[in-house]
Amino acid sequence: MNIPEKLGPEKLAKKPAPRPARSLRLKNTLIGWSFVAVASLLIGIFYFFPMVQALIMSFQSGTGVNLSFVGFENYIRLFQDPVFLTTVKNTVIYLIIQVPVMILLALFLSVVLNNKTLKWKGFFRTAIFLPCVTSLVAYSVVFKYLFAPDGIVNMTLMKINLVSEPVQWLTDPFWAKITIILAITWRWTGYNMIFYLSALQNVDQSIYEAAKIDGASAIQQFFKITIPMLKPIILFTSITSTIGTLQLFDEVMNITAGGPGNSTMTISQYIYNLSFKYTPDFGYAATVSYAIVILIVIFSIIQFKAGGEKK
Amino acid sequence: MMKKFLALLFVSLLVLSACSSGSGSEADADTNDIKVWAWDPNFNIKAAELAKTAYQEENSELNIEIIEYAQDDIIQKLNTSLSSGTTKGLPNVVLIEDYRAQSFLQSYPDMFYAVDDAISIDDFAKYKQPPTSFEGKQYGVPFDSGVAGLYVRTDYLEEAGYSIDDLKDADWEKVIEIGTAVKDATGKQMITQDPKDLGLLRMMIQTSGAWYLEEDGVTPNIANNDALKEAFRLYKEMIDVDLVKPHADWSQYIATINNGDISMLPSGNWITPSVKAEASQSGKWAVAPFPKLPGMESVNASNLGGSSWYVLNIPGKEKAAEFLGQTFGADGDFHQQFVEEVGGVGTYQPAAEGEAYQAEDEFFGGQKIMSDFAAWTEEIPQVNYGLHTYVIEDILANEIQKYLQGEDLDTVMENAQSLAEQQAK
What we know:
The complex is a heterodimer.
Chain A: H1 3-14, H2 20-57, E1 60-61, E2 68-69, H3 73-80, H4 82-113, H5 121-129, H6 136-146, H7 152-159, H8 173-201, H9 205-213, H10 218-246, H11 250-255, H12 267-277, H13 282-307
Antiparallel strand pairs in A: 1-2
Helix pairs in contact in A: 1-2, 4-8, 4-10, 8-10, 10-13, 12-13
Chain B: H1 2-21, E1 33-38, H2 44-56, E2 63-68, H3 71-84, E3 93-97, H4 98-107, E4 112-113, H5 129-132, E5 133-134, E6 137-138, E7 140-142, E8 148-153, H6 154-159, H7 172-186, E9 191-193, H8 199-206, H9 226-240, E10 244-246, H10 250-258, E11 264-268, H11 272-276, E12 285-289, E13 307-312, H12 317-327, H13 333-342, H14 369-379, H15 389-404, H16 409-423
Parallel strand pairs in B: 1-2, 1-3, 9-10
Antiparallel strand pairs in B: 3-13, 4-13, 5-6, 7-13, 8-11, 8-12
Helix pairs in contact in B: 2-12, 2-13, 8-9, 15-16
């Protein structure tokens, strides 16, 4: 799609300039294009070229370099592949539980921390934002040890007599999902909170004052003023979180490695397994990656429809 | 001005396209720099260092560089480089696990260099040949054995009134019986298991010469695989009577062993250094032959892991092959040092008569474990690991959960069979 744009300046440059007025306009256009050209060229080579290559590859199958065209077989296989369907199911479970919980938590925290009378504001903000600067792999490994059968979480729960024997946080299909959700919530809540905080600071205080004079309670102010004012930001964060969750890889790979069975495996991890863990089938792996693209598009459209302005 | 700018654009385009077209004109020059990739600094890397020292005593002009990567990283690097067709940055020699070897040899034909001239495969344990060769050519230089044994806490056994002799030539029913008695006496569970890693089942079925795949190395063999069914049944039995302590990763695994939480440890011989790491348990361990499967043809010997060296088809290949042939594939001091300093069991048969194999190990109560392992190595049934070990293992790891939760064994196996046929292509 970018190819005509890229060719633009070069083609035009070969023509001799006919009239001074047009030549000036042409020159301006050319300069404009030349600024865009470098970026488009690089994007073309490093984004669109691999994307097209991957699309072509998704119609091929075979081991390693022995790829051959198989038509739509990979896409048919996709819908019959129980592992793929399980990974989609797992990813969607993470999505519909984790994203709303995280968004609400982030909203709540940002409103609390936006309170003018709160002391140690800077400290609390930093503390909640800090998880975002940790490396994905490093925090995953720490979580794995926290939630190990004899890890600190189990030890604490047992010491305060909440459970009588260790919860299998990593080896039970249900609890393993909970562990993953807890981990990503911890990692990303602060990140979203920062967006809400900065948006809140742009909300005119007089609106709240007027509401107060009219006798609105704090809860009413939150739902009737804060939420509507933050709507575009909420939409933005929910879309980026959705995309992030659909691409989830590091945490699952490092905390549970997809186990037990396939019960925590995500789509991205399945792509990794198809390419590197099993006998490599890069063609089918490319097909699965395109499935993620399609899913992201679908979810984003749904969110735009649900949260966007009604025009 | 404009022209200059356009010229610059064209140049940058040219440079970029030159980058992408790659280095086709690479000279097939001979090189004296040999790079070796392997994982596990205590075992494989140490062995490679020993081989390097031994070889350089006579061939000092060859520069051998040994580089340590995690096994997963090696697999990734090989796959990405080989599939893109570039050999730049690849080593001359790489260690590949036997379970994965066919997957590489068949996925990237012509990328590996046959070593028929450098070694004689008949010198090595027989079971090593199918995974390391392809289309009649020998590609791998067989390295460590991965021979399996049943590591046992003799002090726990004694508390329950048993001794290590009760485990000689035992089958799994007998082992479970002893394990249950030990648990009643000491409160310690029998084994530890990662629900996602079916190494135990792999060892079990190889004792009767069976594998996840038929002998052709491609067709899944699950629904009618009696050995696998029996292994599933035994696994469930162990879980049902609470003999299995779960762990989720390697460090938990090692901690469970070193803390004395389990009475038995079925594993490959490469676990020895990790067991011995807990020096306070010296004299409390022994190694019994691997238990066989009850009620069917099965021997007291099996294998877990084990790997071989491969030479990549890039400049320096002849020298790399010769280096491997003169060390891992020849009867020299190297093999004795490998036993003495690394504690590894090789697969090079003529070396097994050496003195180092006869040493008694105080940690294992004076047992000659090396000599025992070497003897069991010769009995390991030969199977073709084929292409799909890890795909099928993931399927089975999932299906076995259903079986453990009470689904019928035959239904589970048939389901796994059809899944495997769908996915292992």
